[in-house]
Write a structure and sequence with these properties.
- This protein is an all-alpha fold.
- The protein is built from four helices and no strands.
C-alpha cells in the first residue's frame, strides 16, 4: 500500500519504478507454501513426508515461474493410487 499511495506523482521516476519491480519479484515467493523447495526431483534431499509426488512437480515449477498451467478436475485414478 505504501507504494501505491504516491503513485501519480512518482510513477515516472526511476527509483520508484525500481521499487515496484523489486516488489513484484519478491511477491512471487510470498505464497509458496510447498514444504519442498528443491528445484530438481533427482537432487531432492527432503524427508519423505515433505516430498511432493513426481507427477505434481511439473505443475509446481510452472506455478513458481510463468504460470501457464491451470488446475482442472480431480484426477480420480491418481487420487485412488495416493489413497492406497
Amino acid at each position: 500500500m505504501n507504494l501505491l499511495k504516491p503513485y501519480k506523482s512518482r510513477k515516472d521516476s526511476g527509483p520508484y519504478q525500481e521499487k515496484i519491480s523489486q516488489f513484484k519479484d519478491e511477491s512471487k515467493k510470498l505464497f509458496d507454501i510447498c514444504s519442498c523447495k528443491c528445484s530438481f526431483i533427482s537432487q531432492c534431499q527432503c524427508e519423505k513426508s515433505r516430498k511432493i509426488p513426481a507427477i505434481e512437480h511439473d505443475f509446481l515449477e510452472d506455478q513458481r515461474g510463468p504460470q501457464g498451467m491451470i488446475i482442472a478436475k480431480v484426477d480420480e485414478a491418481e487420487s485412488i493410487k495416493l489413497q492406497k
